[in-house]
Amino acid sequence: MIRVALDAMGGDHAPKAPVKGALLAVQELQEISISLVGQKELIEQELSRIKSEDFDDDNIHIVDAREIISGEDNPTQAIREKKDSSLVKAMNLLKDNQVEAVVSAGNTGAFMAGGLLKLGRLANIKRPALAPVFPAFDGNGTVVLDVGATMDPKPEHLKDFAIMGSVYAEKVLGRERPRVGLINVGEEAGKGNQLTKESYSLLETAPINFCGNVEARELLSGDFDVVVCEGFMGNVLLKFMEGIGKGLFGTMKDEFTADFKSKLGAWMLKPRMKSLKSRFDYNEYGGAPFLGVNGILVKSHGSSNETAIKNAIVRQVYHFVNNEVLTAFSQEIEKGVETDE
């Protein structure tokens, strides 16, 4: 049985989305047991409402937590002071080996701070990385790390990111011999600043399928399975992508509803538009794993719906546990250390 602690109070649609997502997850995979961590009465109310829809909740449990870490809270301070919060209690369950993973759509900073303070880092990994999957035009998506956990990394940190990203892409996303690239201002090996130049040399000898530099305009091409960058750049790319996606689909909606002919055309194109939107839907992947910490942590988007929560569990946590990804991280990082000696 794979046991998961789910922060039922985290996210814009809590507790409805986490509760319903949990029920969808156990309905899809019977070998999963989920502890919904949060205010018991609110979770029970949501469960009572959803039970009428014939969900099987035999593997659903409630862990009462009275406090909530909001988006306005200072991340580190909240983890230290709000000991009865849903996120802290979920992290403690993982720390005490009562579950194998934690999933949350709550405060990202608190999620990362909690992971480091409660769990610590894996052996030989000096810095953690947040690794979302960016949509790609081939429909598969590209793992980008880091997007904000480590703002001022050293070249050896980017090497660790590349190794972890490659293992994740292979064992969780099912990519065979993942193609790894380094974000840079040009494709040539000598391009970039000191960080990227030194990182390039390390990645060439790392135990990965390193395919060289990748310019930002090629990020969504599908030519790379994993792309590595420092956290500041990664976070800017992530927010830019979110803004482009929101603006693009909003503009398309306005154009398709402008007049009768536009509405008719939109009706005819509706199946294709749904297919297009699904390629860029973060709900399909469920969340971004926080790699490098001594535990399985998946951070779902703040506006995640029940599908995203379900997918964070069945498409991320399930494969993390079954494929022993944390062990693989340590083994491959150790190989990388040997190449430096």
UniProtKB/TrEMBL annotation:
InterPro entries: FA_synthesis, Phospholipid_synth_PlsX-like. GO terms for biological process: fatty acid biosynthetic process; phospholipid biosynthetic process. The keyword Lipid metabolism applies. The keyword Cell membrane does not apply. Keywords: Cytoplasm, Lipid biosynthesis, Lipid metabolism, Phospholipid biosynthesis, Phospholipid metabolism, Transferase. Pfam families: FA_synthesis. GO terms for cellular component: cytoplasm. NCBIfam families: plsX (TIGR00182). This is Phosphate acyltransferase. It comes from Natranaerobius thermophilus (strain ATCC BAA-1301 / DSM 18059 / JW/NM-WN-LF).
